[in-house]
Amino acid sequence: MNKRTSRRGNAIPAIFYSLMKLSYGKVFCDHLKKGDQLNYEIHYSCCSHVGKRRTENQDNFLCDGKYLGDIKDTVEFSMNGCTDRAQSYVFGIFDGMGGEENGELASLIAARCAAEIKIGPCPIEDLQQYCNTANEEICRYADDNDIGSMGTTAVIIAFAENEIDLCNIGDSKAFHFDGEKLEQISVDHYAATIYGKKPPLSQNLGIPSTEMMIEPHYARGYYHDGDIYLLCSDGLTDMVSIEEIAMILTETVAGGITDVNKTTENLLQKALDNGGKDNITIILCRLKKRRRGLFDKILHILRG
Fold this sequence. Notes:
The protein is of the alpha+beta class and 304 residues long. The protein contains seven helices and twelve strands.
């Protein structure tokens, strides 16, 4: 993200966002059969690149429990893998602001806190607790070190036992692709601005509670074979249009490509080819239904 310090406008109540998104078309709709995470593999790929114009990477991520622990590190290649056991998995992207070093520190704190998320029976509540904790940690660090302003966006997706849960604050985005249609399932938190200019953020992690209460967006969805979830910082979406992103994902599905790593590399390269003005961080997750063995079938029956 650029070096601007966010100006905060009036935020729409979070409950409105939640209700609006919970009834949002077929992406997170009740008519999809509730899937069991035990029956699905998550093929994932992650990359974080400094871009062509920045000298420091203020982005961070959480991917299969890993994040950039050294603020001077940058990942300029894709990490990829596949979940190998039935448990909850959390993926996230964090785009720092408040000057280069402060932005890096804010996104690092958010990523470190995200690595501690424990998803239980109520995933949305766990994500709410995360947002409060990360916000407090960033504010505490700023106060202890006499930093005037530092913050970060956050977009997190949790693959829980029986559902998929989303949380975001700021303008780092989450998309759902069902093989035909790409839809944004996160909500951008922007304040009013002059027409033609990119608006400042109205919400982010790192806002003192004495100034305003943060109001992240939360949503819930279900497992469906072949679905793709894309998380990214604005370094991708500012450089690559939604239509171009959809085309790259469509080519992936149409070509029968199962290697999400290659697709992530294509998205990154497109952002760099189009200018690469900011740090670029991308996480791609594709769901694949497992072939059940005898043990899985017995366990499924016992679980009802």
